[in-house]
Amino acid sequence: MKKNLVLLFLLFAGTALWGQTSSFMDQLLKSSNLTWGQASYLVLVASNNLAEDVTEQRSFDLLKQLKWAPANTSIDAAVSLQEYAFLLMKSFGIHGGMWYSLFPGPRYAFRELTYRMILSPTEDPDTRLDGTRAIRILGRVMDVWGSKNGANG
Length: 153
Known about the structure:
Elements: H1 2-16, H2 22-30, H3 36-46, H4 56-66, H5 81-91, H6 98-102, H7 106-115, H8 131-145
């Protein structure tokens, strides 16, 4: 039963990501470690910051240009939960609390999304994500804030 619920959720989360190509989604779901290239493409397309026809390299380059990714990271490096939280907050224009406003970064992005019950407080912020987990978290963010154009956070 639990497996059926997860599959049903993934189906709905997948439809929320509209035009993301099926080959990208297949690759993402099989991925045991979400890379910066995958994360940048997934989040920037879902938040309407980029069109779906861009490459992972182009989306990663934009992240670096915006300084939303660590300066010394590579496109194939694994993304931690707190780094993914920061990417989500920036991409969806989510406003944080006092500490995030003073020190915007992965640590306080993780704390903000934990406070807003998107992430669990028992999770390790340095945990590496797999593709399925990244999609589930993105689905929760989109449920609360919608796309960038429809964000209410």
